[in-house]
Design brief:
Blueprint: E1 6-12, E2 21-26, E3 29-35, E4 45-48, E5 54-56, E6 58-63, H1 71-74, H2 77-82, H3 90-97, H4 106-122, E7 125-133, H5 141-152, E8 158-164, H6 175-184, E9 189-192, H7 200-216, E10 220-225, H8 235-245, E11 252-256, H9 265-278, E12 281-284, H10 295-300, E13 305-307, H11 324-334, H12 340-349, H13 352-357, E14 373-375, H14 381-387, E15 393-396, E16 399-400, H15 403-410
Parallel strand pairs: 1-4, 6-7, 7-8, 8-9, 9-10, 10-11, 11-12, 12-13
Antiparallel strand pairs: 1-2, 2-3, 5-14, 14-15, 15-16
Helix pairs in contact: 4-5, 4-15, 7-8, 8-9, 11-12, 11-14
Length: about 425
């Protein structure tokens, strides 16, 4: 990153106000946001936005960083199974995909994680919730690698490492002990995937074990829930109820929840009331499967919704470049949210709402808040989504990110 501690962004456009503005950044925080005509003289480095839109930086609330760029070594069988029909073969896809872990090398995993985080920084992401499988095949290797990547990218991207029991807790012998070891090794968040357990009782036990571990380490919970085409899956309800029962509102995050698309409306109404009470946010990744959470309906009912990249060239999604504007662009089409309100909602889902989902409460363009910003090359949300190109500048913790270097590490041509 560039060494400047003071930056003034001039000639900036904002989402919620007309005219041009100057944004002053000092000591890692936003010092002021003022109309250009009354703005103070620039101090430190001056950055001309040239009429481009300046917003909060992007946040990726869901990324399986331990599996990025592994599709070529695995083959496409799991991809076919996961994306078939209404995801009836989702369980089989997970079992097929798990084979890649038998041959994963820690050094190579770190190299690919590094490439992906650099790509994310180049495209304006400054925070990521990153999952690492913890099971009998991977042990705690993925967590250890992602913790190393987290430390390496400190100050550029805030990485939250999730210890994720991909193969279950109840049905996978030794998984509970491995999860504890993963938290002791430095994981930040306790993961879960209760819907893959064999019975409803086991699903509930999986959720209880995750919350027990989270309480022991004062950590948040992130769970992949109901990720198949089965309207009978109800682990989202169980998880939200447990968060409420334990007095942990706002500390449990729900991912996928694709079965929600098949729920009857009366049940959906009760469910959203529960989610609001438990302050459970929902992360949707609509581009990675034929079903998805009811994003617009959730937002209409006051549930916080984020989008995630989920996967980058692995067994579940063949593409991806850690570009959250691109994820929102895809959401416009897949969720039929192309109108202006829909675009704004999706942009929130990859910036301020995504930050809130992962426990970051001060991610807004307000004086006193951390300066995590993107300076776009265009002047509207519509064009940001239309072109989803790298921003003209990225500021993380008050410092300019060296995008040219990030592009080089990522192996992409700088725009």
């Amino acid at each position: 990153m560039a060494p400047h501690d003071s930056i003034t962004i001039q000639n900036a456009r904002l989402r919620d106000r007309s005219g041009l503005f100057a944004i002053s950044v000092d000591r890692g925080a936003i010092a002021s946001v003022a109309e250009q005509t009354s703005a103070p003289e620039p101090s430190g480095a001056a950055l001309d936005a040239a009429g481009g839109l300046v917003t909060e930086s992007f946040v990726d609330a869901h990324l399986h960083l331990d599996k990025v760029f592994t599709l070529a070594s695995l083959g496409e069988q799991a991809l076919h199974e996961y994306q078939a029909g209404e995801m009836g073969a989702a369980m089989r896809a997970i079992e097929t995909a798990s084979e890649v872990k038998r041959s994963q090398d820690a050094e190579r995993m770190l190299e690919l994680a590094r490439r992906t985080l650099a790509m994310a920084a180049h495209y304006g992401t400054t925070a990521v919730r990153a999952f690492a499988d913890v099971d009998s095949k991977a042990a705690t290797r993925g967590v250890e690698v992602l913790c190393a990547a987290r430390d390496e990218f400190a100050g550029v991207i805030d990485v939250q490492v999730v210890a994720f029991p991909q193969d279950g807790i109840v049905r996978e012998p030794g998984a509970a002990d491995l999860m504890r070891r993963a938290m002791e090794a430095g994981a930040d968040v306790v993961g879960g995937i209760p819907w893959i357990e064999h019975t409803e009782a086991d699903m509930a036990e999986h959720i209880n074990c995750s919350f027990d571990l989270a309480e022991a380490f004062d950590a948040d919970v992130s769970m992949l829930l109901d990720d198949a085409g089965d309207p009978g899956l109800r682990t989202l309800e169980t998880m939200a109820s447990e968060a409420l029962r334990r007095g942990r509102p706002g500390r449990a995050l729900a991912h996928h929840c694709r079965a929600m698309q098949l729920y009857p409306d009366p049940y959906f109404e009760r469910l959203t009331a529960l989610l609001r009470s438990a302050e459970v946010s929902v992360v949707s990744d609509p581009h990675t499967g034929p079903l998805h959470a009811r994003v617009s309906d959730l937002i209409d009912r006051g549930v916080n919704v984020a989008l995630g990249q989920d996967d980058v060239s692995d067994a579940y999604y063949a593409l991806g470049r850690a570009n959250m504007a691109e994820v929102a662009f895809l959401g416009c089409h897949l969720l039929w949210m192309m109108h202006r309100e829909g675009q704004d909602r999706l942009y929130d889902a990859v910036t301020v709402n995504a930050a809130r989902a992962v426990g970051v409460t001060d991610h807004s363009l307000e004086p006193g808040h951390p300066a995590n910003l993107v300076v776009h090359r265009c002047d509207s949300i519509t064009d940001v989504l239309r072109f989803h190109e790298a921003p003209a500048a990225v500021i993380s913790h008050g410092r300019l990110v060296d995008q040219a270097h990030m592009a080089e590490v990522a192996g992409i041509a700088e725009q």
